[in-house]
Batch of 2 targets.
Target 1
Amino acid sequence: MWREIWFLVTRTLLTTFRKRRTLMLYFGLPIAGILASVLLYSSQGPTELRVGVVNEDAGEQIAADTVSFVKGLDHVTIVNVTPDELKDQLAASKLDSGLIIDSGFSESVLSGSPDHIAIESVKGAQVTAYMKSMLYGYIDNVTSMGKIAGGDAAKFKALYDQYRSADFKLTSESVNDTATTKDMSYQSIGFLLMFMLSSAVGLSELILKNRENRTYFRVLSSPINARTYVLANIVMNLIVMIVQIIVALLFMQVVFHLDPGIPMGEMLGLLALFALVSVSLSLVIVAFSKSSAMAGALQNLIVPPTCMLSGCFFPISIMPAEVRKISDFLPQNWVLQSINKLQSGESFGSIWFNLVMLFAFAVVFFLIATYKFGRNNDTRNFV
Amino acid sequence: MNVLDIRGLTKKFGDFVAVDNMSLTVREGEIFGFLGANGAGKSTTINVVSSLLRPSSGEIRILDKDIMKQSRFAKMNLGIVPQDLAIYEDMTAYENVSFFAGLYGLRGIKLKERTIEALDFVGLGDKAKSFPKNFSGGMKRRLNIACAIAHKPKLIIMDEPTVGIDPQSRNYILTSVRKLNESGCTIIYTSHYMEEVEEICSRIAIVDHGKIIAEGTKEQLKSTITDVKDIRIELKSVQGGVVEKLRSIPGVRNVSQEDHVIRIHSDAAVDNLNRMLKQLIDAGMEIRSVEEQEPNLETVFLTLTGRNLRD
């Protein structure tokens, strides 16, 4: 039987994949998916904050130092502007925020009640929060010195000079921020899951196409029986899925340099299990379809919506709690959950329940398809 | 030796009996004509013989082996040429034949030789690398045959192999059928073209309502029709309504018209030729010739089933 299966598998693979269009469809699209998530997340890296500064407390040491402090912050560029220019440039989005130091700011800090300083932005907290937290820390320090000096200018100067010239021993150690690459690879896998499901349905659909062109019945009139024929389709489908996974993971790591934060072997194992689920689900779709057109329609009805609900296209955390409950019944969600756990540092063994769930999905789908196939007995189109 | 032996075959679809206790024997070396109007049960019979359908009851033996018990042996010795083309449009002619021959366990050089042999046999040797989508209807039909014969089956079932093709391809196929038969293949041949069946079949069975209603050589079948005469009248032009008027004449069983020729199927015992001619003359039609023909297979079929083969 395996000799016959292998014969059917090799012949079908050769015929199906000699077309460039099919190669693009099965292997090019998952790569395009990875590219899409790379582009999607590339805008989330560190950005430069453009701050317009209006210093109307000019000539005062504290005001000048405050401006210098802001200038020294990472990823901040300052531009000295007038109040009118600030308004115009904020409105035109040429500046992200504005720091307005009014006359009397330095004095207010010295007196222990900082005032006459404001931060403006039309983009809201997302651009002002960082500068506020850093700047307020600095002002608080200087204010504390003002309070300690108790209005004594000489004492404040001594404290302030000491503060400015403080000799800290700072040891820094750089760590890579892997959050973005993990997000990118997570989303790339999301796209891959959808393409795997679509590919599986496309390949299982060959059974229906062969029924439509009647070659299926010619095959069944040979010593090949229906079980061998369907088994060959499953094997062929799994081979394509595995190659699809390997190609996608290779491109992810080698070409796009995306480290998913999970050992490749574990990722391959997890996705191979999902390949089994994809094939079993595709067989259910085919078993319930009377034509390839109907299978295509069912695929459109099932694959994209379930992928969306499972978080294949965007993080599931942004969806309402009720929708998240639905995703528990979707195999894609169990894969993505597993990836999330593995990325958080959990071991492969600790996701055993997710793996069992995926296997259970595959078994249930296979059983449904087998039951339905057993009840199909349509030979009317052959002779 | 019997190549095919069907005993008491019944196939039901729910309450509908498609094949009703049919028994049939096809001997080695025969070209066996299997005739029946649409829905008579011949396709169901072929589907059961080719193991695509399970019989409700009865026994089928191919080369003396029960097809249910020794399915693989039966299938290895059977080739099916379906009425509707069953070929892959995205495979070349060579790949098509090679694929289907490979299903019978042929591999390597033997597979290659048999594939080339089958393509040469149907006259497509020079088109081996071409795709069927570029073929004419006749070429596709020939490829359909090549796919069924490359594994050299003992029994070939050909269902309407010449339907809808040009006369040249039709002649080629009929010659191929004879050659296959001469090379030792037993052939079951179904067709709506009576002249084809008369020309090539050594024995014929007529099936109606799932039963064999007549079986024998064409001469034997024709000899059973003694109570019917077949009259052919050629007219200069045919007026509307004349067919209905002729049908109302006592003894007339069936009237058909093809261009300027009217064929009347009537009881031999009733002397009604003069009334027929009078009817035509009264209607103002000019008669060119009148001929009483020997009963042919079509007459036999019509007499036995009350239907034309194309109904």
Target 2
Amino acid sequence: MEVGGRESPVEGSKKRGRSKKDGPEKSKDGSVLKQKSPAEFFAENKNIAGFDNPGKSLYTTVRELVENALDSAESISELPVVEITIEEIGKTKFNSMIGLVDRERVDEELYDDYESAKAREKRLAKEARTQEIQAKNAALGKKIKEPTSAKGIKGRGEASFYRVACKDNGRGMPHDDIPNMFGRVLSGTKYGLKQTRGKFGLGAKMALIWSKMSTGLPIEISSSTRGQNYTSFCRLDIDIHRNIPHVHLHEKRANLEKWHGAEIQVVIEGNWTTYRSKIFHYMRQMAVITPYAQFIFKFISDAPEKNMTIKFARRTDVMPPVPLETKHHPSSVDLLLIKRLISETSKQSLLQFIQHEFVNIGKGYAERLIGEMGDDFIPKMSVKSLTDQQIVRIHQLFRQAKFDDPSGDCLSPAGEYNLRLGIIKELHPDLVATYSGSAQVFEGHPFIVEAGVSLGGRDVKQGLNVFRFANRIPLLFEQGADVVTRTALKRINWNSYKINQMQDKIGVFVSIVSTKIPFKGTGKEYIGDDITEIASAVKSAIQQCCVQLKTKIVKKMQAREQQERKRNLAKYIPSATAAVYDVLKVMAESHEAKKKRYEEEDVELLTKISEHVITKDTLAEKLAQHVEQVDYEMALEYATQSGASEEPRENIYIQSLDAKKEYLDFTSQIFTFRLFL
Amino acid sequence: MADPSPRKRRRPSSASDDSSAPFRNRLKPDSVILQTLRSLAAASATSSSANKTLTLADLDLSTSCREVTDQSLPAVQSSIESLILKIARSILAGEGFSFDVPSRSSGNQLYVPELDRIVLRDKNTLRPFAHMSSVRKSTITARILHLIHQLCLRDIHVTKRDLFYTDVKLFQDQSQSDAVLDDVSCMLSCTRSSLNVIASEKGVVVGRLIFSDNGDLIDCTKMGMGGKAIPPNIDRVGDMQSDALFILLVEKDAAYIRLAEDRFYNRFPCIIVTAKGQPDVATRLFLRKMKMELKLPVLALVDSDPYGLKILSVYGCGSKNMSYDSANLTTPDIKWLGIRPSDLDKYGIPEQCRLPMTEQDIKTGKDLLEEDFVKKNPGWVEELTLMVKTKQKAEIQALSSFGFQYLSEVYLPLKLQQQDWL
């Protein structure tokens, strides 16, 4: 498992730079210049990794573990099976786990949640009032609302603890590497550019830091690689100040089931009540975007009624290809990156460096570029001997020169098929349309936008439901400012696709994959709306889906109109005939009373009215007949237009060629009917 | 009627006011202004008596147009009856039924420059019962015909609201029954008043006018501050007398109240009318009747925005919705007195009282520039172009920034003195 693998060194060096800056501030009181370890930095700024509060920490821990598990299984082309268990740990149990004796409160007034006499009076009065109101409502026959569960005043000390375990069938980790993979932050050495799932590349390490901060309990890892006859078991925590692992136990155990993969257990403080729905949403959306994986989600607690197990079944065994590592595009590099590439390259000459360390630069183009750089550049010069000024010149030229756009080959989109399947599997919509755009480019990074629009379905709210995915992980927070939400809300004219934005249950799914997702905000939870390339790609992808839906919707509406035409027309017959008949009746009366003279032909009709030969019912009947006839004609016309496809078909069985040649021929003058026996 | 006593109410004018009420010192004595007004009234009287108003029949238009006339109740009743008989026969023959309704869509409207009003062309649309898109409308049409027939028999008037409430379930909302009502009057070629259906009172009139309403004599100088509500039924109105020199048409209720309270009509003898926004049929009929009988010039005071001009055009050329009856509803030769876009700078209306025009405003303004009734008046085109260019609008109330009575005491007198109308 590549826990630390995706940390790119550039990011790492930036963060290290920031942590160094903190140093001088600390040295005000003491003259010692303190170095801060990366682990310390993240422990202090845990919000940037998504560990803002206990609830969010629980959520982030789950997602980091799930995403690691998926990456690990996909890297060996194994269909992922991921099992997540969250176990609620009561205070007593937790105390016994850490070997602390439960102590009764002696001095009640010492505690924050102590209810003073005054407060109790107030509370009792309030309770009495609500009871009174309820009694009144009950007397009036109103629906009684469930009495809101009297919330116990929760003190600060009442933290809840959870054991989060995640088991996968992935690559597993080599026995000796396990301590370093978990116990050292920013230890990644991977170099290059790749579409990755994780947001920060901290993986389980941040969860470990959080567990150390909140519970002090170590993390437990068992792992086995393919074909390995033992499993490694490791219990460790992290020395935050020195950024090194602190191993409690590291041993090999028997691997009887020939299991490969990893199982990680960590005990952290969390908040299940407030983040339950977020975790569910995350699992559900994950199931949408990865229908080839199987997820089992379990929640265990002391209260059996709260326990649950949800299984998100696998629906396909088609997996998107593993994203390929690619080289940087010249227009996307910065000075620091060029320097790093130079220090790490195995190429000797400048020409080779430019030609091989970047995409979309051929030999001829590299020569032209070097020629353009100036007199002090020659193709054969050693790349390591470049001065800082020369590097700046290279950077400038990369910014200004024209390069072909990077191709999207290195990306691994979910795929239209998978997206559609995921939507159908999880939402069961009435209609669904999907679209996959071609690769486009933003600041030298290729990206692909895929979209799906669904109508109707299970557990879908009325109106727009936006589901966002970036590099195949769901984004749940900070939806408002996101490019997808904005586009769906403001830039799509749903009406023109015969979709009612307020009343229909619309699901909008947009998945964006890129070697670098331009996240906004500290939490990396949304993609900004200010990038026109992405905004227009999202818009056109959604529109493509809507166009597909429109034809289906129009067909449906026509069919419905067909069915309901007769009924709708017949509905108006009584009103129309009543109006006509009432006028006729008045006319007939005034004719009888000789008040008014009418033409000869009218007299005949009016007499029939006054003699009740023609009544209201006669008119209604005749009109109904006419409606019937028109309906029949129009149905016929509709059938001719929509073609014979509506007619029932019967299966035709064709005789196979190697059948026995036993048959009877019925011959007539025009044709022969051959019956095989 | 009271004698014309132009200076009944003292103007609180003094030198110190000049800073707060600019241009006051440019005002000449009222007697001079009255002189100009008298000559205007005289010119108007002679011009309207000289050339007889043209009718559609006088013109030899290439396209035939539809116009409606006032019809007597028995005539309306007979035409409804023959229509119903035709329908009944058609139903009995098993052919269903359909109405042949004149189209009132904007494609079927025509502006006739010679008449200076919009008329309706003679395109018809068929409204068959046995069709999904028209079944509702044809049923409503039959129902409205039935209701009007009842009105004819009993010879009573009802309001549009009454009509709607007779069958709320079918009509669903009043706009539907109102629209069909207009269709019916088109179909029967009679005015809406001939159908005995009226709209509720909206317009008000105050000033030097005496007329009889259903036999009662009304003196509009003695109607208090609010004035007299314009009767919805124009047939009841008659015997108009006036010593006014002009009619002042006001868009807004607020400006109307200001002028009425200041008894502006006593300083400069006039009749003040407002319909409080978009004019209703009754106010338009009333204005036309005054113009025709009293032969007075009509000056309009509207907001300096595209809607102000639009309201002006409805009085002058008619609305598209009622174009079939434009002959009876329009008042020719209305002058645009104010507030015009050029006044904003001319009277130094402060920046904070001007509003930026919205996208929609600018679009409406540009659309108006394309309209024929604007194009025929080069002065209006110039003003409207200025409005669209500066992208600023102002309401009549913007003048209140110089004091609440600036409108009645300085702005209007100065406008009249300079004969500053288009």
